[in-house]
């Protein structure tokens, strides 16, 4: 299949799922026509081999496999770099890119700052909207920065690529009208707010599960806004990602048996999952459904884990190991969510000041959301 055919197939999938932002029609045109994704994809990509490792896929050796990775599904990212066996940079999935650009409310003539250049594709999309010479992008990896600079220069978009650590560097041209990050942070750096003009907007992936859009107050002393959508983002470089579930569990047997009184299949609910991410940010929850039943895995990335399987007869079997009682902690967070009238993920917001970051739920109570 030709690259243009793959691009059309991806566009159709986005159309069918209603993922193109209605309020920002420029996003669809930029992604499909002005700044096609494959022009910013490196010749070597990476994919999971299905067992134990990420393996390279080179354009020169397998053009079709390479193109399949570039134009995968709307919610599939394209891995461009692997460090120590784990993905460290990617072309973000098209659905999330479109959603974040829509959330940014970028207009022609805005000065925009991006943290996390990667391939340069997102910076190119920003420039297609804001205009040549209006976008500055920061990349901590010197090799990625240099390659992105070459691609952006070839596209003639006038983007300034600034090598450095986005968590600390402050490039010139501040204050910016818009700021966007393409990697996740647990704490929004106050320096990012300081570099954004009063009334300006920041769109930032928060933790492992979603992104927020914040507006800087008129006095510049705070920024506040709402959760905009879900999506998994790579953390800032150097972040300890913790151990994977299988390494936390190890080979020490099934662990202790745990009584389960709730229907754990509800943990597939995105709104409940987000509330648990807020109340218990260190507990990682994954679910999977198959003909044999529904499986839940919990772990803290350190030493505690839990697993439960709900069979086709609705009977649940649960085990856990380690010092923490993760299922009980999740149930406590679940109780708190229900006591708060089950706010949806869209009901959550954040306020950032120089001294604190507060996550709250609903428009009625802007106190911290915590059990």
TrEMBL record:
It is an enzyme of class 2 (transferase). Its EC number is 2.1.1.77. GO terms for biological process: methylation. It is found in: Cytoplasm. It comes from the Bacteria. One of its GO terms (molecular function) is methyltransferase activity. Keywords: Cytoplasm, Methyltransferase, S-adenosyl-L-methionine, Transferase. Its main location: cytoplasm. Belongs to the methyltransferase superfamily. L-isoaspartyl/D-aspartyl protein methyltransferase family. This is Protein-L-isoaspartate O-methyltransferase. It comes from Streptomyces virginiae.
């Amino acid at each position: 299949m030709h690259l243009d055919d793959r691009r059309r197939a991806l566009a159709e999938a986005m159309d069918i799922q209603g993922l193109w932002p209605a309020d920002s029609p420029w996003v669809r045109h930029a992604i499909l026509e002005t700044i096609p994704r494959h022009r910013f994809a490196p010749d070597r990509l990476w994919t999971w081999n299905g067992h134990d490792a990420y393996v390279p896929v080179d354009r020169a050796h397998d053009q079709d496999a390479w193109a399949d990775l570039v134009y995968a599904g709307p919610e599939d990212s394209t891995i461009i770099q692997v460090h120590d066996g784990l993905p460290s940079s990617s072309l973000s999935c098209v659905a999330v890119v479109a959603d974040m650009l829509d959330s940014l409310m970028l207009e022609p003539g805005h000065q925009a700052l991006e943290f996390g250049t990667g391939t340069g594709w997102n910076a190119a999309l920003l420039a297609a909207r804001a205009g040549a010479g209006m976008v500055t992008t920061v990349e901590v990896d010197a090799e990625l920065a240099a390659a992105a600079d070459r691609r952006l220069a070839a596209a003639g978009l006038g983007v300034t690529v600034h090598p450095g650590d986005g968590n600390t560097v402050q490039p010139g041209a501040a204050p910016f009208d818009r700021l966007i990050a393409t990697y996740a942070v647990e704490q929004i750096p106050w320096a990012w707010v300081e570099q954004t003009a009063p009334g300006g907007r920041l769109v930032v992936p928060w933790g492992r599960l979603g992104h927020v859009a914040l507006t800087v107050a008129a006095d510049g002393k705070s920024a506040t806004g709402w959760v905009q959508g879900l999506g998994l983002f790579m953390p800032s470089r150097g972040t300890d990602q913790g151990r994977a579930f299988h390494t936390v569990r190890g080979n020490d047997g099934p662990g202790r048996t745990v009584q389960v009184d709730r229907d754990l299949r509800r943990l597939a609910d995105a709104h409940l999952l987000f509330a648990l991410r807020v109340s218990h940010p260190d507990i990682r929850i994954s679910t999977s459904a198959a003909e044999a039943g529904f499986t839940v895995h919990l772990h803290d990335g350190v030493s505690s884990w839990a697993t439960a399987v709900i069979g086709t007869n609705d009977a649940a079997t649960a085990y856990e190991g380690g010092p923490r009682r993760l299922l009980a902690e999740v149930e406590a967070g679940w109780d708190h969510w229900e006591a708060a009238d089950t706010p949806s993920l869209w009901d959550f917001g954040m306020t950032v000041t120089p001294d604190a970051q507060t996550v709250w739920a609903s428009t009625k109570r802007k106190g911290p959301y915590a059990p």
